[in-house]
Every structure is written in structure tokens, then in C-alpha cells.
């Protein structure tokens, strides 16, 4: 098994469980998957850039408080790589949940950077944005 396959076989199932819980309002599993070692950062789809663990944690708690009742969550890995104790994953996430009490389907493009710390992969960075139409897919524009 390659380093990438090994990484994905460990991280992806754990990440899917974490995000299902998060999308139902449970922030704790996500907090456990994230590093406390600097640097740590988030560029969220619905918020500003957050750096430093205190700001990242505050952002996660605020977002999770808005989410509830996740009925479906799917993750599609687009690409990934591992180099020593650093790894990244580019993926598409889709979740069906309630946001601020309203039924919502979120579709996000996401890039995560992970660090191996004491033998465990921890998130160190997340960049997410909403999926938009690909302007290059329409040749008339």
C-alpha cells in the first residue's frame, strides 16, 4: 500500500464520521481531529480567515451551533498526497442538514492540510468554498 493509500484509509473514514457529527451540531469530534500546534488556520466558506487555535476553535463552535439534523453526508476525494509528516486532500463535500433551522444542502470544495503528530494525522488547515459553475465548461463565454 502506498503512503497516500495508507493515509486515505486512515483519515477519510475518520473524517467522514467527524463531519457527520459536526453537520448535526456536535463540534467535539472535529475539535479532537485538529492540531493544537501552530500554525493552524481555517479559510471557511462562510467566514473570514482564522489563524491560531483559539480563533479556529471559536469559529468551529460558532458554525456547529448553527448546524443540526444531518441526514446525508458524502465526501469525494479528488486528489491527495503525502510527503513525510505532511499530507493534503482536495475533496468535494456534500451535506444535507439544517442550518439555522432551515433545510439546507451544502456542496463545498475543500482542501485540508494534515500534520502527523505523535503518529496521528491532525488537521492543520482547512480551506472551503461553495461549488460554483466552471466557466471553462461553457465554451460560449
Compile the SSE list and pairings.
Blueprint: H1 3-22, H2 28-33, E1 41-43, E2 49-51, H3 53-66, E3 67-83, E4 86-99, E5 102-117, E6 120-130
Parallel strand pairs: 1-6
Antiparallel strand pairs: 1-2, 3-4, 4-5, 5-6
Task: Quickly list its features.
alpha+beta; Nuclear Transport Factor 2, Chain: A; 6 strands; 6-stranded mixed sheet
Strand order of the largest sheet: 2-1-6-5-4-3
Low-confidence stretches: none
The averaged pLDDT comes out at: 94
- CATH fold-type name: Nuclear Transport Factor 2, Chain: A
**In CATH's first tier, which class applies?**
Alpha Beta
The major beta sheet can be summarized as: 6 strands, mixed
Beta-strand content: over 45%
* Portion of residues within helices: 25-40%
Number of strands: 6
**CATH architecture label name:** Roll
Describe this structure in words.
This protein has one domain: Nuclear Transport Factor 2, Chain: A (Roll), CATH 3.10.450. The chain contains 3 helices and 6 strands, in the order H-H-E-E-H-E-E-E-E. A 6-stranded mixed β-sheet has the order 2-1-6-5-4-3, with helices on one face. The radius of gyration is 15 Å and the shape is globular. It starts with a helix and ends in an 11-residue tail after the last strand. The model has no long low-confidence stretch (mean pLDDT 94).
